[in-house]
Amino acid sequence: MTGEMWTILDENNLPVLEFTSFISLDVDNTSKITNYSVEKGSFTTYNKIVTPNELTVTLAMQGDALKLQNAIDILNTLCNEAQVVNIVSPYAYYAGYSLESFDYSFNQTDGVGILITPLNFKEIRQVQAAYTNSIKYTKNQSASSKVNTGKKQGEKTSVFFDGAKAVTGNGRLI
């Protein structure tokens, strides 16, 4: 594989993780076409919805316990934080992906000094938010219609006693 590059880069195009072998890359590029039923058993198609691409990258890492623990820690950080990475293969450059999940196991068959882990990435499409003022004001306040605020609840009055005098809730002496 001379001249072929397989790697995972961070936002600054620096390698995120050292690995021994890039075992596989599976790409799921899906879109959905919306169909709606109409009269007489027919249907109509309105639009195509492009879903985020998903990648499954399987890596193998060989090393001592410290090196493998460091790789697991990096994968945990990538999975738990909103970090975006780029996956590079000789065939395509996949920009803007986030690690959604990963799993790993150690077993006697593969050797306890080898970590084989499938990584599931999902494409992140970043867009700029556009905000608008959706409140419309009338030029003349009398031109706007009245808002029904409901019924007004009656005032409650209470009686306080100050010795022989009684004071109502509105401040009058009885």
How does this structure look, described?
By secondary structure, the chain is mainly beta. It contains one helix and ten strands; from the N terminus they run E-E-E-E-E-H-E-E-E-E-E. The chain has one helix spanning 65-80, and strands at 7-9, 21-28, 31-37, 43-50, 54-62, 85-88, 93-102, 114-123, 160-162, 165-167. A six-stranded antiparallel β-sheet has the order 1-6-7-8-5-2, with helices on one face. Strands 3-4 form a two-stranded antiparallel sheet. The protein has a two-stranded antiparallel sheet with strand order 9-10. The protein is elongated and about 80 Å long.
Q: What topology does this entry show?
A:
Layout: E1 7-9, E2 21-28, E3 31-37, E4 43-50, E5 54-62, H1 65-80, E6 85-88, E7 93-102, E8 114-123, E9 160-162, E10 165-167
Antiparallel strand pairs: 1-6, 2-5, 3-4, 5-8, 6-7, 7-8, 9-10
Report the uncertain regions: none
Largest sheet: 6 strands, antiparallel
Strand content: 35-45%
Radius of gyration: 33 Å
Structural class comes to mainly beta
What is the ordering of alpha helices and beta strands?
EEEEEHEEEEE
Mean pLDDT: 81
Number of helices: 1
N- to C-terminal distance: 102 Å
The neighbouring-strand order within the major sheet is 1-6-7-8-5-2
**Beta-strand segment tally:** 10
The helical percent reads under 10%
Overall 3D form? elongated
Pick out its properties.
174 residues, mainly beta, six-stranded antiparallel beta sheet, two-stranded antiparallel ribbon, 10 strands, 37% strand, elongated
